[in-house]
Design brief:
This protein has two domains: about 5-215, PmbA/TldD superfamily (PmbA/TldD fold, 2-Layer Sandwich), CATH 3.30.2290; about 220-449, no CATH class. The chain contains nine helices and 21 strands. A hairpin with a 5-residue loop joins strand 5 (about 165-180) and strand 6 (about 190-195). A six-stranded antiparallel beta sheet has the order 3-2-1-4-5-6. Strands 12-11-10-13-20-19 form a six-stranded mixed beta sheet, with helices on one face. A five-stranded mixed β-barrel has the order 7-14-15-17-21. By secondary structure, the chain is of the alpha+beta class.
Length: about 450
């Protein structure tokens, strides 16, 4: 199926809404191409791709609304999806939180999240095969077994409502994760990279990093559970920072349901909640981690400072809650940038006296929303570092910790790098550092590799 460009999506959006007989309607469109390559046991196992265009129509009358989705973009298919949305709206109960469409013209950011070279299907396929080949060669050279997954996507998105608001956005994104494991399965190393540009995906570093971790983790030592200094590689940092960012919601805080709630409907906005070294913001136009430019109902996503000098500056605010509280809506972050130091992670590591080096987190789950306490596992490489060097591998732990406590205990950090979480959503561009913190609660031992 042909991918529709933004001009084609704009024309299609007008056509779809012309079929609507509702009080108001909106349509979201996505046209894209996704391709992937998977390898395991030192050989390519699957390779595939698909293209699709999907349309979601919401029709509303009063406080009743209905939505329907289709990928049939023929004349009859589009008329049918509009009729279906209107039919659902006629049957739906009234929704007091349904907001009318926005009418105010939006000022959309200019994002560089689209990489022209990445849309060359043949070139991209060749790059994926070269990366897989490099991983397999590295594994064979050390008698390891390797497995990994590469995914490249092209996404053209558009939004239109019947009051004249239109937003179009396009982006490309590639992710690569790789595992190296000894033949007996007792030692493992892992790494992950992401970029909006396939040509900027530092796959070779990921491969060598995973291989080195596999070598270093052989015959890991047992350590007692406890609170240790911790060094989080960027991917592990990304997982916990993303967990924090997902919790920055004004409604939850003002209704007393979050770690940022304060008495009588107050919130922690303006309070210093973490170490004053911490600055976290989002910016769709960031040159290394560019992201989406619009959110709910076509609202423009602004550059937003979330934490500054350790103070909570903003909470995301949906349109309904904004109207109820007489405040402006604020879309959630579409990317996450955390300021750091001046040294690359590998150089920064050599300056640290001691701590447990965490390669990645796995199976993160909520424990207590009031404190933002999470639990999870370390995976594929946990190490004791002393005098700036990995001394030996350490058996894995289950941990119980809050991202807030981590950032309160922060000692220092490396220069930020483009990375992606392992357990979280890797579709969100992230530019974060390696984190060094004074305390992290490793609660119990884990037999996981």
């Amino acid at each position: 199926m042909k991918i529709l460009d933004l001009d084609e999506l704009e024309q299609l959006s007008k056509k779809i809404l012309s079929y609507s007989k509702s009080e108001w309607a909106e349509v979201s469109l996505e046209s894209g191409h996704m391709a992937n390559l998977r390898f395991a046991a030192n050989t390519v196992t699957t390779s595939g791709s698909h293209s699709d265009t999907s349309v979601t129509v919401t029709a509303a009358n009063g406080k009743r609304a209905g939505s329907a989705t289709t990928n049939n973009i023929s004349e009859e298919g589009l008329r049918r999806v509009v009729r279906r949305a209107e039919e659902i709206a006629s049957l739906a109960p009234e929704n007091e939180e349904l907001m009318p469409p926005i009418t105010q013209k939006q000022n959309y950011a200019r994002s560089s999240a689209f990489d022209a070279r990445s849309i060359d299907f043949d070139w991209a396929a060749d790059q994926r095969s070269k990366i897989a080949n490099a991983a397999i060669k590295e594994a064979v050279a050390h008698s390891y077994q390797t497995a990994g997954f590469l995914e490249s996507g092209i996404y053209n998105n558009a939004y239109r409502n019947s009051k004249g608001i239109f937003a179009g956005d396009r982006h490309t994104r590639s992710t690569f994760s790789v595992t190296m494991r000894t033949a007996d399965g007792k030692s493992s190393g892992w790494n992950k990279r992401a970029s909006h540009a396939l040509g900027q995906l530092d796959a070779q570093s990921a491969i060598l990093n995973a291989s080195a971790k596999c070598a270093a983790w052989q015959d890991p030592k047992d350590m007692d559970p406890g609170v240790y200094k911790v060094i989080l590689e960027p991917s592990a940092s990304a997982d916990l920072i993303q967990q924090l960012m997902w919790s920055l919601d004004a409604r939850e805080a003002e209704e007393g349901r979050s770690a940022f709630s304060r008495p009588n409907g107050g919130t922690a906005v303006g309070e210093q909640i973490v170490n004053q070294k911490v600055n976290i913001y989002s910016n769709p136009s960031h040159p290394l981690a560019p992201s989406g430019i619009y959110g709910e109902s076509g609202l423009a996503v602004p550059s937003t400072q979330w934490l500054k000098d350790g103070k909570l500056m903003n909470l995301a605010r949906g349109r309904y809650w904004a109207s109820k509280t007489a405040k402006d809506p604020l879309p959630g972050a579409t990317n996450i940038i955390m300021d750091g130091g001046g040294m690359l992670p590998e150089d920064f590591l050599t300056t640290l006296k001691e701590g447990l080096l965490v390669t990645s987190f796995w199976y993160i789950r909520d424990v207590d929303n009031q404190t933002l306490l999470k639990t999870g596992l370390t995976r594929d490489g946990l190490f004791w570092v002393e005098d700036g060097k990995i001394q030996y591998g350490v058996s894995n732990f289950r941990w119980n910790e809050s991202p807030l406590a981590l950032l309160q205990n922060i000692l220092d950090f490396s220069k930020p790098v483009v990375t992606a979480p392992r357990d979280g959503w890797d579709g969100m561009p992230m530019y974060v550092p390696m984190i060094y913190a004074s305390g992290f609660n490793f609660a119990s031992s884990s037999d996981a590799v």
